[in-house]
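Thread title: Can someone regenerate the structure for this chain?

I was given the following input by a collaborator and told the matching structure tokens would be attached. They weren't. Posting the sequence so someone can regenerate them.
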Amino acid sequence: MSDAELSRAEWGTRFGFLMAMIGAMVGSGNIWRFPFVLGENGGGAFLLAFLILLFLIAVPGLMAETALGRYSEKGVIGALRDCTGPGGMAGLGVIVILVNIALMTYYSPVVGWILYYMLQSFTLEFTSAGFEAEAFWTAFTNSPGIMVLMHTIVMALVAGVLVLGIRDGVERLVVYAVPGLVIALAAIAIRALTLPGAAEGLEFTFTVQWEYLLISDTWIAALGQALFSTGLGWGIAITVGSYLREYDDAPLGGGFFTAIGEASIGVLAAFAIFPLVFAYGLDPDAGAGLTFITLVQVFEPMPIGDLWAIVFFVGFFLAAFTSAVVITEVSVTTIFEESPLNRNQSVLAVCSTIWLLGLPSAYSVTFLDFADFTFANWGLPLATLAVMVGIGWYFGPERLRVLSVNKTSGIYVDTWFNPIVKYLIPAVMVAIMAFFAYENFMADEMIAGVGVLIAFPIAGYLIMKYVDRSKATTGAAAPGGDD
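Best answer:
Regenerated them for you:
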């Protein structure tokens, strides 16, 4: 049975739902982004700030998003319209969609990098005589034609999977990709820990240099990473939660399981990468290319290194690709529900838009770095604020806790949930962004971030005020597409 034949599809199994949540969260965020952001922001101090924000903000935030999705059984805009009512304030959902699409425009090129490395692993390139990792990376990033081609292939594959639908497409991928990636990453970590210099890498990763915790860059980067890698603010948890079955457990899957899985994979990636960085004398502050330069150096001296390279990059690609699929599904679900387009037309519209807007990031790594900083560190907190305002100040956290969070829950969530969602999460994010803006006043990163903070809410408000007024005037049919 296809999605088109169902009033609303559901996950086939609880394992499929949990792997979709983990599959969406675990991918490039852990293995590509986490190491280089950690390397740029003081190692252990960043890790401590990340873990604090992960469990302080991400766990209750993901629980709230998943529970709202299950309660509303709608995409992002529909779910937040259930909170605010029709009109301009439903634009809170538009903010999430705009941020989601902006993030996907540079995430797709990164998945394209991984696809290229996966293809090269089948040629045994990484274990060939004279292979030089940094030269290989430089040659690749100086070939914009190849990077644009990889971005194009990724978005075509994403569209293909989404046409198959939530059950036949997404769930079949994630139940295999995530376990495969973890096995390959563990094997690399074991090999990396046996190399000379591994202890120095572990010391960098886990020793806290307390002075870094007094720097705003550390906290804005940790906030961005906690939101980027857990998917909080992307609309993923709302969308995945909307496909939950009635008796599935929102707090366990949406909050605790995702956060624990996220933290575990991130630490495992740190065990694999930073011993390699110090063993091969690389710079931990190497930026976006850090993962691609370090990991490929471990395979040549490994027993059956050719096979391990293939296993790792296939698992890495599948994990990153499933994230791309689930991220894009957020916008597809919403467009399908809010417009007259059917599902396949919605997939084509969303994927074409992402492909077109992603060309600058596919062409230039420098542009991609700037887009990543702007939308991960400013856009995601804004989107998370939009969701928390909808839940905390319109729907009501107590109402959500009673009606959805604790419904068929294996973990009882007490009233501590209410002030965290309504006050703590918004206050922490606003404080961190204000701290960064104060310390980086009029810097390019600050100006770009403030531009996002102003433009996206205005656009969201105006769009939904016009759309909902038009529907009221014309008596438009209930949303949900035409099939």
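The chain has 20 helices and no strands.
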